[in-house]
Design the sequence.
């Protein structure tokens, strides 16, 4: 779903609190986002945005650049 939101394939907008990294680290891909801060462990580890963004940021560059949802899904199954 995050892939679909990122590439605007669904009518859901990214929350305004999610910002792209200006300079992704060497382990992030070029579409990396800054992980939202949270004071609560249940929110920080939730499938809401903090955990999903951490997972998204660690995906390979080639994976996040795939042009279709199906190709993206296949790449996730292989990795």
Sequence:
């Amino acid at each position: 779903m995050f892939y679909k939101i990122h590439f605007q394939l669904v009518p859901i907008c990214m929350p305004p609190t999610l910002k792209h990294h200006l300079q992704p680290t060497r382990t992030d891909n070029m579409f990396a986002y800054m992980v939202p801060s949270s004071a609560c462990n249940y929110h920080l580890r939730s499938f809401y945005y903090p955990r999903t963004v951490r997972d998204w940021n660690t995906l390979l560059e080639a994976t996040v650049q795939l042009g279709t949802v199906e190709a993206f899904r296949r790449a996730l199954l292989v990795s």
